[in-house]
Amino acid sequence: MILTVTLNAALDLTYRVPHLVPHASHRVREVTERPGGKGLNVARVLGALGFRTTVTGFAGGETGRTLRTLLAADGAGAGRAADGDRGSGTAAGSAGTGGETAAVTDALVEVAGPTRRTVGVVDESTGDTTQLNEPGPHISPEEWERFLTAYRGLLEQDVEAVALCGSLPPGVPVGAYATLVREARTAGIPALLDTSGEPLRRGLAARPDLVKPNADELAGITGTAEPLRAARAAQRRGARAVAASLGADGMLLVTQDGAWSAAVPERLAGNPTGAGDSAVAGLLSGLAEGLPWPERLARAVALSAATVRAPVAGEFDEQTYARMLPSVRVRGAETP
Amino acid sequence: MILTVTLNAALDLTYRVPHLVPHASHRVREVTERPGGKGLNVARVLGALGFRTTVTGFAGGETGRTLRTLLAADGAGAGRAADGDRGSGTAAGSAGTGGETAAVTDALVEVAGPTRRTVGVVDESTGDTTQLNEPGPHISPEEWERFLTAYRGLLEQDVEAVALCGSLPPGVPVGAYATLVREARTAGIPALLDTSGEPLRRGLAARPDLVKPNADELAGITGTAEPLRAARAAQRRGARAVAASLGADGMLLVTQDGAWSAAVPERLAGNPTGAGDSAVAGLLSGLAEGLPWPERLARAVALSAATVRAPVAGEFDEQTYARMLPSVRVRGAETP
Q1: B213: CATH
Q2: What is the extent of the structural domain holding A74?
Q3: In this structure, are residues B6 and B111 in contact, taking their beta carbons and an 8 Å threshold?
Q4: What is the pLDDT of residue B84?
Q5: Within its chain, how far is the Cα of A179 from the centroid?
Q6: Nearest CA to A269 among A248, A288, A283, A238?
Q7: Taking residues B148-162, what's their average pLDDT?
Q8: Residue B278 forms beta bridges with which residues?
């Protein structure tokens, strides 16, 4: 299975209001709740592609309970859709573009502090979203140790790849991802790191197999705004490979075997929320299947585009994905 | 005791952000959670004044559980502060400006749907608040019947007054407050109604002892913007007495014994959130003690002012209250 780590999981709330006016009072027309945080989003996309995925990280309080209930409900739906596939553990049961939805297994670690909420306020008059993200619960040293024990236990299972995703809640050491990357390497499991700022900088030094910053995050840690130059700089700092998401310009991938860029042939209007998480899912799924790098990149770009086009933020549109995948243009990238 | 009814109770979240920018992403610096909805706010103020109060209405889901946990924690604090006062049931134990804090008793009725959240986003650069209010759970006909049974049971206890507060959640009949006012009258208990729109219009016809609209709500149901004229119109529609809150201009009270207006002698800067609920608490506490109308009005105006001045929205500042109460100017109001 594929393991995703979300240390600062969230209960994502979406509020739809006719028109957002600062300093006014609004009746919310529609409320939706779902499990959130990058690693949980990645797992949902992997599940939709038919890959068995396990999620870990922290959950606590009533918000954590709601998150886990929603996660189990998603899984129950997936189970009904794909009973024959569950737990098969075969290559056919694991690989799955176009296959049946697979359940996401909950291996979150219970903590005392409540799981954070994020609130996305959608202004229906413009379609724009105003985002409010709570900081997350304080994690005690004992809780962090408990997580490390659980993580080591998971790495002893049949893990094909691990994704380490998102921000750190208060109390978790800033070098947390470096520790988790090293543990994965000790277990012989490829690790993908998708975070930003100091946790990314520290994580790089532990030599993850792949990092997936966006252009801003990459510039922030390397001091270089030109993507290819910055990706090479991130490699020198420790990453074996760098997949940089460049928004509407697609993605740039720099590995030890070569460098490629890829984009879809058309500009797509839509909501970019979750497009980066779908790209991570595409890269991981290609890694789990042992695809060559350019094919992993094509999958990541097509899934990103299909997420921008989906009516619900963070979901991906399967028809757009099927249509985009063969049309993604992958080109060799020159060193400037 | 005093009974307050909050059919659409809420878990009130306050988010502090450095500066609110529509369509941007924000890290929330500080999150506070507390029990909300008008009747729960009224009960908190009454408790702080030393009055034994019971709250009823609906609570459900994880948000309802959090609300009840917070309510119990408030009560535990009050219990420690005022053990000698609790449950005494005497006039001395009940009356209490300046007395010890009394516990609030939870008599909320469990429902299947989750209690709504409200989110107040405080922009620290301006101090202004942007408010987002969820609609609330759908209440089934069976749940409404269950509430009516519980309400009738509470009215058989030693209830000095009942306050019916706030909006109706989906599924509750629009004539709900009319029903609750009639039940109170049958039980011989004075009823105060604080709501708006059609539920207020319908509730008036059931002849509540007192309604507390603000100027806009009063104009909305009577079609008259001039407060005294509008209050008289509300009386003709069924209210025995009308207390209209006029913001910085204080309050206007029209009863069968006379009409008065009252205001504090100085303009107070601060946050008006909850000032109306504090006014209701002032009116109820005066009713419970059998004070003459002008003294009830003075108490309501001083509590409102002390709420505007409190550092936390919806709390009241005890020192401001003690200072304001003797300085409130109550005048007879002339019919225009």
Answers
A1: 3.40.1190.20
A2: 2-8+38-115+136-332
A3: no
A4: 34
A5: 19
A6: A248
A7: 97
A8: none
Catalytic site includes residue B277: yes
Q: Residue A330: which of A248, A243, A259, A235 has the closest Cα?
A: A259
User: Does the residue A29 lie in any domain?
Assistant: no
Query: A236 φ, ψ to 5°?
Result: -65, -30
Instruction: Using a CB–CB cutoff of 8 Å, tell me whether A72 touches chain B.
Output: no
- Residue A234 CA: distances (Å) to CA of A146, A227, A240: 31, 10, 9
Q: Residue B119: which of A27, A65, A119 has the nearest Cβ?
A: A119
Residues in chain B: 336
For B170-238, what is the HEC assignment?
CCCCCCHHHHHHHHHHHCCCCEEEECCHHHHHHHHHCCCCEECCEHHHHHHHHCCCCHHHHHHHHHHCC
pTM above 0.90, yes or no: no
Largest CA distance in chain B: 56
B5-26 average pLDDT score:
95
**Helix A61-81 and helix B61-81: axis angle, to 10°?**
160
Short-list B176, B325, B322, B332, CA closest to B259: B332
pLDDT tens-digit series, residues A113-161:
999 999 999 999 998 899 999 999 999 999 999 999 999 999 999 999 9
Cβ pair B301, B279 in contact under 8 A: yes
Instruction: State the DSSP H helix or E strand holding residue B131, giving kind and residue range, or none if neither.
Output: strand B129-133
Q: Phi, psi (5° rounding) for residue A328?
A: -65, 130
Among B17, B130, B214, B217, most A C-beta atoms within 10 A, so best to mutate, is B130
A20 with B22: Cβ contact below 8 A: yes
Given a contact cutoff of 8 angstroms between Cβ atoms, the answer to whether A108 and A8 are in contact is no
Query: Is position A78 within any domain?
Result: yes
Contact A200, A213 (CB under 8 A): yes
User: Is A231 a member of any domain?
Assistant: yes
* Antiparallel, parallel or unpaired: β A161-165 and A2-6: parallel
For residue A68, give the amino acid letter. R
* Token pair recorded at residue B70: 């917070």
Q: Which of A112, A332, A300 is nearest to A214 (CA)?
A: A300
Q: How far is CA A135 from the centre of its chain?
A: 19
A199 is a domain residue: yes
pLDDT of B87 strictly over 70:
no
* Contact yes or no for A25 and B131 at CB 8 A: yes
Strand bridging mode A251-254 / A242-245 = antiparallel
Residue B255 token pair: 């009863």
Token pair, residue A248, equals 């509407």
Based on the structure, what is the number of domains in chain A? Answer: 1
DSSP classification of residue B135: -
Surface of A (4-63) touching B: CB under 8 A: 13, 15, 17, 20-29, 31, 61-63
Long-range contacts of B267-271 (CB under 8 A, 24+ apart): B268/B305, B268/B308, B268/B309, B268/B320, B269/B308, B270/B308, B270/B309, B270/B310, B271/B127, B271/B129, B271/B308, B271/B310, B271/B313
- B126: nearest CA in chain A? A23
A335: confidence class by pLDDT, cuts 50, 70, 90:
low
Query: How confident is the model at residue A312, as a pLDDT?
Result: 76
The interface predicted TM-score of the complex, written ipTM, equals 0.85
